[in-house]
Amino acid sequence: MINYRILVVEDEQDLAELLKINLESEGYKVTLAPHGAVAINKLKTESFDLIIMDIMMPSMDGLTATHHIRLSSNNVPILILSAGSTAQDRINGLKSGADDYMSKPFELEELLLRVQKILMRAHREDPTINFMEFTFGGNFVDFNSYKAMGINGEFKLTKKEAQLLRLLIEKKNQVVTREEILKTVWGYTVFPSTRTIDNFILAFRKYFEEDIKNPKYFLSHRGLGYKFNDKD
Fold first, then answer.
1. DSSP string, 50-94
2. Which residue of 13, 104, 128, 140 has the smallest Cβ count within 10 Å?
3. What is the rounded CA–CA span in Å between residue 115 and residue 104?
C-alpha cells in the first residue's frame, strides 16, 4: 500500500492538529504548514500527493499560494478548506487552480472521503507507481529525500534531476516532449538549451544504465523528446 503524503496548510493550530491526527489514523503521512509561504517553501524540497489548503491565513493566503503552486507547474491535487461558503468563493477557489473545495464547518467523514477520492483519481492511470519511491532494475529513487541507488552505489540527485526523472517515470513508455519538460521542470521563465536537457539524460544513463552507449531505460527520440522505458 502506498503511504500518501499530505500537506495541510492551516493557521488554526487546533484544527491543523485535528486534521493531522485523523488523516494519520487513515494511514496518510501528514506535514503541517501555518500559511501559504511556508507551504511553497516545503514544495521546493519535498513532494506531496495532496495539499489541503485553508484560504484566510497570515503572510500568504490560500488562493495566492495555490496560484503560485500552479504557476510553478506543480500539478499536486489541492483541496481548499475555507470559511467562505458562497458560490463565488467556490468559483474563486477553483479558478486559482484547486481541484476541490469544502466549506467550514465540515463533516470529518466527508473530508476523509473526498481525500480518498481525490487520491484515487490522481493515481488512477497507474496505481502501481509509488510517487515517493520508485524501483527499476537494480536501481532505486526516493523522490522525498532525493537519495538514489544506481550502478555505482548510493548518491543524491539534484532537485532538477529529481523533477525530470519523476516526470519521465510518471509518463513511462511515452515520449515526453521538450516543451513539456521545459514547462514542468524549468517553469515558464527559464528556458535551458536542448543540450542542457540532453546532458540530464546523459547523467541518468551514467547513474542507472549498465551500457551507456546502448541505454535500456533512458531513450532519446530525435526531434520529439525523451522516454523512460521500463519494458524489457
1. EEEEESS-SSS-HHHHHHHHHHTT----EEEEES--SHHHHHHHH
2. 128
3. 16
> What is the rounded distance in angstroms from the CA atom of residue 227 to the CA atom of residue 14?
46
Grouping H, G, I as helix, E, B as strand and the rest as coil, residue 65 is helix
Express each pLDDT in 182-198 by its tens digit. Answer: 777 776 445 556 678 88
The three grid cell numbers given for residue 215, joined into one nine-digit string: 541505454
Model confidence pLDDT, tens digit, residues 71-126: 876 778 999 998 877 888 888 888 888 888 998 888 999 999 999 988 887 765 44
Give the integer Cα–Cα distance in Å for 76 and 99: 9
Q: Environment class of residue 105 by beta-carbon count within 10 Å: exposed (0-12), middle (13-18) or buried (19+)?
A: exposed
Amino acid at 72: S
C-alpha cell at 32: 503541517
Question: Is pLDDT above 70 for 1?
Answer: no
The 10s digit of each residue's pLDDT in 33-52 is 999 999 999 888 887 889 99
